[in-house]
Structure formats: structure tokens, C-alpha cells
Design brief:
mainly alpha, Growth Hormone, Chain: A, 2 domains, 18 helices, globular
């Protein structure tokens, strides 16, 4: 069996600029994400609490972006919107380097977050356009692997910069991020994607409100997305505040998940070929439920078992995360009408957008009540989502 087939990789001829764009863009994001609040606090002299509030308000103010993209993407094309998103984010981070007032920082944050939402609302339509009907799953998986690899390497770079100390590395991280957006945009201009604008009358005929099963699937995926985001938000707090485990284990576990996402998605797609995507997504929910139960159980185990069970829980999470990442977007693309796929995939991003807004409060409020409560609730939600996917299955198109 050829290596490409064994690894579940698609044919990438003529599409290398897109893959490089995804990796480079994610490298910049991984580099700046852990350092942004420190930059605003140390370089711009904005109090940490106020800096966090500025980012949160910018995130909330940009929540309508996926809906706007849904109205534009079939008319102007996914590549053009992704390209615009890259340029907008580059401009935002360039001004971040010179801005010192809170008003200017808020404006930059708003443009950056809106550009990020536009990117995520367009990129899967672009991957779908590149892949065509027969290879979409493998392209979504490969795209996710490139992004995970880039983000992981960027996170390592952030750790190195953080170890150096001082304001210089923080400024360098912002400059690197701006540069990666510019380079990614340049690579994207070399990608040729055939796009025929959807006529206005045809676009108006594709209305999400006329497709309740798809709307329900967005809600179900939002529950799974919330569970997936809970690891990044709550793991370090749980380990440090509630468990008899060394703090360094957090970095090891997050690295384990990143490696799994960066190396196994196309293999999972190949191994699950011929199986219904809904069943794979349901299995991802079951694995996330198992992860939640194991995380909650850590609080009630002897100290000697905490680290081994924490590792086992993370392996269950990684398996569920890989299955979800390799399947969810391909499922959304497969059941979207061809004449409105861009619009449907843009609205699909609300499952991730709303989860991102909700998850910090979800974890903090439940953790304040009881340290194991966020994980128990996540387990119940994930299991409910797994059942809901199977219940929805007969109402979805056979594709």
C-alpha cells in the first residue's frame, strides 16, 4: 500500500501553498496566544484585569462575524475571505505594536478577533472547495494536522520567549504573529480555486431556519466543543488547586494532545472510511464522557494513582478530540446543500464561537462549587451529545 494511502493523506499537488499557509498562520497564533495579556500588561501598562476585560469585550462584539460571512462567502469566494481575514489580523497586530491607549488596544483587539472569526468561518469552505466531494474528510483532517503542528511549535517558541524575560520577547512575539499573517496571505494568493458566485435568488433560497436538523446539529456540536475547550481552560487550575500532582504535568498532557492532533487525524479518517460520520462523532462524545468521569474521579483516588489516571484520562480526551476534529467539519460539509455550503459552514462555526464564550464562566462557576463538578457536568453533556447525534441521524441527508 502506498505511504500516502496508508496515512490517509489526500493528493496535495498544487495545494502546498494552502497547507503552508495553515501551518504558518497557526505558528503565529501559538506564539502570541500565551503572551498577549502579558504584552498588554507589561508593554502597554494596562492592568491585567482590564486587559482581560478588553479582550473579552472584543470577543463578544465580534460574535456576529460568522453570520456576516455566511451572507458573503458564496458570493465572493472562500479564498478571498480567508485572504481578507489574514490581512486584517496582520494590520491589527502591527498597530498593537505601536498602540498604548486602551481605546486603540480595544480597536486592535476587535479587528484581530473579528479577523480570526472570519478565518474560521471561511477556511473549511476553502478546504471543501479544494478537496471536492470525494476527498473532503482527508483534506479537513490534513488541514487540522497542519494547524495543530504549527500551533504546537508556536507554543514552544512562546515558552522560549517567556523564559528569556523582559519586554523584548513579548514585542518579538507580536511582530512574529503579524509577519506570519502577512506570509500566509502571500502564500494564499498563489492558490487557484475555481469559484462561481451564487446568484442572489439562489442564495436566498438556502435558509438555515428551514433546516432544523442542521441547527440541532450545531447545538450538539457546540456541547462537544465546550467539552473540548474545557481542557485548556481548566486543567492547570484543577491540577494546581485540587490535585496532589506536580504542576509540570500540565505541559506534558497538553503536549500529548497536540501531538495526537498533529499526527493521527488522517489515519483516523482512513480507518473510519465506510462508517457513518455521525457514529464516529457519537463515539467521540462517549470518549469525552469517559474523560470527564476519570477527571472527576481523580479527586477521590489515592495520591499514588492520580498521575497514572490523569494520563489515562488525557489519552481518552485525545482520542475523542482526534475523532471530533477529523469528522465534525466533514459531516457539516457533507450534509450542507451544494448551493449553500459556504453559508452552512459559516454558521457551523457558531458551535465553536459560543462554546469559546461560555467555557471560562462554565468552568469557574462550577469549580467554585466543587472541584470535580465541571468534569461531571461535562461528562453528562458529552454523553447527551453522543446520544443526540444518533437520534438526529435519520433526519440528516444520507451524504
Amino acid at each position: 500500500m502506498p505511504t500516502r494511502t496508508a496515512l490517509g493523506l489526500p493528493d496535495v499537488r498544487g495545494r502546498v501553498p494552502l497547507l503552508a499557509c495553515l501551518a504558518i498562520d497557526s505558528f503565529g497564533g501559538g506564539c502570541v496566544a500565551p503572551l498577549l495579556l502579558l504584552f498588554l500588561n507589561h508593554v502597554d501598562r494596562i492592568p491585567l484585569g482590564r486587559a482581560g476585560l478588553i479582550i473579552t469585550l472584543a470577543s463578544l462584539a465580534s460574535i456576529a462575524v460568522p453570520a456576516v460571512v455566511a451572507q458573503l462567502i458564496d458570493r465572493f469566494g472562500s479564498r478571498n475571505l480567508v485572504l481578507f481575514a489574514q490581512v486584517a489580523q496582520c494590520a491589527a497586530y502591527v498597530v498593537f505594536l505601536t498602540g498604548r491607549s486602551e481605546v486603540l488596544v480595544f480597536g486592535c483587539a476587535l479587528v484581530a478577533v473579528a479577523g480570526q472569526r472570519m478565518f474560521w468561518s471561511s477556511i473549511f469552505s476553502l478546504l471543501s472547495d479544494v478537496a471536492g466531494d470525494g476527498d473532503r474528510d482527508r483534506w479537513f483532517a490534513l488541514g487540522g494536522m497542519m494547524q495543530s503542528t504549527g500551533f504546537g511549535l508556536g507554543s514552544l517558541a512562546a515558552g522560549v520567549l517567556l523564559a528569556i524575560g523582559g519586554n523584548g520577547p513579548l514585542i518579538a512575539a507580536m511582530a512574529v504573529n503579524a509577519t506570519t499573517f502577512l506570509v500566509a496571505a502571500g502564500l494564499l494568493t498563489r492558490l487557484r480555486v475555481h469559484h462561481e458566485p451564487v446568484r442572489l435568488n439562489g442564495a436566498r433560497q438556502v435558509r438555515l431556519r428551514d433546516d432544523p436538523p442542521f441547527v440541532a446539529l450545531i447545538a450538539v456540536n457546540g456541547v462537544l466543543a465546550l467539552c473540548l475547550m474545557l481542557l485548556g481552560v481548566g486543567l492547570s487550575v484543577y491540577v494546581v488547586e485540587a490535585l496532589p500532582a506536580p504542576g509540570w504535568i500540565v505541559g506534558v498532557l497538553l503536549a500529548l494532545v497536540s501531538v495526537a492532533l498533529a499526527t493521527t487525524q488522517t489515519v483516523v479518517v482512513r480507518r473510519s472510511a465506510g462508517r457513518r460520520r455521525t457514529r464516529v462523532l457519537s463515539l467521540a462524545g462517549v470518549l469525552l464522557a469517559a474523560w470527564g468521569l476519570l477527571m472527576a474521579a481523580l479527586l477521590h483516588l489515592p495520591a499514588v494513582l492520580v498521575v497514572p489516571v490523569l494520563l489515562l484520562a488525557t489519552l481518552a480526551f485525545a482520542a475523542g478530540s482526534v475523532m471530533h476534529s477529523a469528522t465534525s467539519n466533514a459531516l457539516a460539509a457533507a450534509i450542507s446543500p451544494a448551493e449553500g455550503r459556504g453559508k452552512y459552514l459559516s454558521y457551523w462555526q457558531y458551535s465553536f464561537t459560543l462554546a469559546q464564550v461560555v467555557v471560562p464562566a462554565f468552568f469557574a462557576q462550577l469549580f467554585d462549587v466543587r472541584a470535580d463538578l465541571p468534569w461531571l457536568v461535562a461528562a453528562v453533556l458529552a454523553l447527551g451529545a453522543a446520544v443526540a447525534v444518533v437520534v438526529l441521524e435519520p433526519r440528516l441527508p444520507r451524504s
